[in-house]
Please model this.
Amino acid sequence: MNVDLSLFLPEVFLLATVLALFLQSLARPREGGGTLSINARTGWVPLAGLGAAAAALLSLDATGLVLRGAYRIDALSQFFKLAVAAGFTIATFNAAKQPTLETAKRADYFLLLAMSALGLMLLSSAVELITIYLALEISSYSLYALIPLRGKDPAAAEAGIKYILFGAVATALSLFGLAYLLAGQHSSFLAVLATKPWTWQEAPLGIVGLTLFMGGFFYKLALFPFHFWAPDVYDGTSNETAAYAATLPKLGAVVVLIRLAAMLKPGFQMTTVLAVLGAASMTFGNLAALTQQDVKRMLGYSSVAHAGYVMVGLVAASAAGLAAAGFYSLIYVLMNLTCFWVICRISREGRNVRLEDLNGLHSREPALAFALAVAALALVGLPPTAGFMGKLFLLTSAWDRGCNWLVVVAALNTAISIYYYLNLIRHAYTVDAESAAGLPRTGGAIWGGVLAAILLILGTVPAFVFQWAEAAGKQLVP
Amino acid sequence: MSYSAWPVLTALIFLPAAACLVLPVIKGDRAVRVFSLAVGIVELLLALPLLGFDLSQHGYQFVEKAPWVPDWGLFYHLGMDGISLLMVLLTVLLLPLCVLCSWTYISKRVREFHLSLLLMTSACVGVFVALDFVLFYIFWEAMLVPMFLLIAVWGGPERRYASLKFFLYTLAGSTLLLVAMVAFYVVGGTFSIPELATKSFSFPFQCWTFLAMAFAFAIKVPMFPFHTWLPAAHVEAPTAGSVLLASVLLKMGAYGFLRFCLPLTPSASHYFAPLMIAISIASILYGGFVALGQRDMKKLIAYSSVAHMGFVTLGIFLFNLRGFEGALMVMLNHGITTGALFMLVGAIYERSHSREISENLGLGKTLPAYMGFFGLFALSSLGFPGTNSFVGEALVLIGVFAVKPWVGAAAILGVMTSAAYMLRLGQKLAWGEPAKPKSWKDLNIREWVYFTPLAALVLYIGLAPGLTLRAMDPTLGHLLKDVNSRAAMTAAERPEGVFARIDFNAPERIPDGGGR
Model:
């Protein structure tokens, strides 16, 4: 079989990164000493991520169907590979000097991180159920190992166990569904499945199987009622790992759900299931977040709510809807990473950040306070941030697709969510710290400003990025 | 539509925003104030080309249009008609006055204060001139955060409660506005406001979208059951915040009714008019009576705002030209008069450190100039003939008596209460017996500077309202004709319901041009 390697440019780049990190991790930790040992010198990883992003940008127009029809390179996959690479860059840059990670473990840490990102890239191109499953597991297993890596914190171990247990159950569900799908529809290729009937009357087994299979991805997405792990895991794991776990895996889940949703048409039973889950997820996530005092926990519940918003685009299942879902998940990654960037900078020795810790941030760190404010407003969906544009596209695409009530629920949820996001701004800007003394200077202000600027730019001129998502949507639903 | 070579409106929107980028590098509080004042004055100068507004036209002028997100039909589309002209001029005039009235009032975080002020101005001008629904929504939401900060950082002791309440109320309202906007785009095929205003939508669709939009605008105005955020926000906000809130933000709700509800959903507007009129009357009476019982000056003026804004919505839903003119006049005049009253309260607060009426008795002897201004603005607020508010309220009353005299009788009661509470306030401030003698200084030059233009406007509009009316008449006349004719088109679809039984909207009974 002849395969053109240029089709895999971003994957190959990331694979090379993984291999290099693997070699680096083999080095022996140096005893004491001033200089860093080889396996602690991981400063180059964000640059590799940048390279992967550039590779993804280069191969944005690539198309192809390889590996016997199981692996598809198209506008959708390339858009998500770009998103994964961009997110990976920011996440690794964010984690470069983790206070809760021994320097000798850095190479291993980034090895697992890169491995997980590679899995996500494979996931965005996989168009065959077993391939999808394998790619999902590549990205998940690395995360299972990453979550407990937070010094000797027992809470992190607890988070790790929770993540694995929930993940194992979700995976089992997924496999169960896969078996039903194979039995009911006699194929594991999405292209073939798309031609089959998808109604309860004609293919009950298929519907049950697809629902269960999707369950595995709902778990990744932290969609209600598969969300229970999210707040605890964010809370327990280190800030930097949480930044990754909260963002990139969602991309992988969304891309698969987009591919599956493209097979559905409005009015189908599956669509209703998605709509109900979406509405429940956003409402529950927002209500639960209202009372949180720990910023990471709050973001955990907020991610549950955002999983619900993405469903709005999937329910629409039109070219515009799928494009909007893709665009929104990219924006979601960016705004959440901006939030986490600020959290990681102001956290003391890697401890969790509570709302009171933000007090007086405006005078300590004006740039970080600004970045946090922009990210919070973007998460609410207020203009002129990218979050608003994402939400506008989502709601517009879903109107008149048979679920107008979902649009109204999504809009009303904004009003609920404003309270807790505004709390971030309120603490950062209007409450003064009791004792400003003794707080370390934090740095990272410039990059925080850059991330905020990206959110603002995407909010005012979204067209140049949105067109890529749009191309993906049009190609899925011509 | 007429296009212009120099992008006047863009300049007006982006000058304050651009100034925000410069502000962080300016050193020293005084320099920040001077800089902001200079920006305010330049902004006023930039508004001079607006005087070239063609008074004989009803269409949009100074139009700018550029593609923004072409695939989604988003345009950067600005324009100005008779309604927005007056609102923009008011907004632009207030920026330098707000800087001046905060000169000594604001002493902490001066730079951020002026940053918020400038951002507010940008967003407010944007709201009044945006002709693309999404663009409008962006400006509409963009002013929330600066206003929130104005209250939450520089506000009074209850600022946390007041600022959160303000934000939650306004945002809750605008979420449904967003849904209405999306629905209009999907059904009408465009985000352009002028284009949407020419399409006719089915009656049920109009009803739902009307309710969604009216909810947002009613909160902003605020109309009676949704008004509770206003007294809290007004009392806690710093002077400049109160001024902007009263003079500009409240107008956006009324502007929304005129710009969106009426032209986009004409039938539903007619259908729900009795409801809106009832709520307006409730606002007038409720605001007036509650104001009677206040001991805090700011609270009193805040409740009087509820009453005055009731006149605005009353005028809008009368569907006759006098009512429309009156509504827009009251909007403008309330902006001038109430803004000035809040500045006066701020000025006395700087002297007595209290807003209680009982702590500020007997100022007539020691502060004659202050009381002189206060008397003028208080008379204006109660609609004394010869002042600006008289023109507006009289027009609304003419409009309402032409349609339903008994509704007019209720509105008259509201006018009477406003005389009662304003005269009581003025009397106590001027001639009350103070507990201890005062040694406060009368107005200084800075204060003269910011009260004089407003006082001049009170008298100018009060004595010679012709020019103002000429500026708004073509637009309002066209709007009225358009709304009525298109409402008649879908009238057949309109079901007989509770609201349809009271026929408020009998054909117009006043001949055009008469009765001024």
Chain A touches chain B at residues 362, 373, 377, 382-384, 388, 392-393, 395-396, 399-400, 404, 407-408, 411-412, 414-415, 418-419, 422, 425-426, 429-430, 461-463, 466-467, 470 (CB under 8 Å).
